[in-house]
Design a protein that fits this description.
five-stranded antiparallel β-sheet; two-stranded antiparallel sheet
Length: 112
Amino acid sequence: DYVELPLTAQLVVGLSPTWDWNLYGGIALAFKAACNVSNDAGDKADCDEAAPSWTFNSTEWSVPFGTSFSYAFTRSALTADFRYSYGLSNAIDNLRLKNRSWQFILRWGFGV
């Protein structure tokens, strides 16, 4: 499990008075919060106990990028966001294993 801190730039394209298309990308730094491994039977163990010869890195770099579509209502907006994070750093020293993730976000925002 990681806590990721992304820094992204965003391009906003107004498709109509109510529709926006967004394209974004950037860099992210992630900090390891917890680490567990599991086998095919579903048994879980802490990474240090299950794989003592592996050194799990405490930080990882990645490149997040994605797109979203927003529809503006009178006092609110609905956004569908699709994001992919491409890992740059190895998750484990001396092994070419990188974390990658997809995020699908549906957001409803209200004005105050």
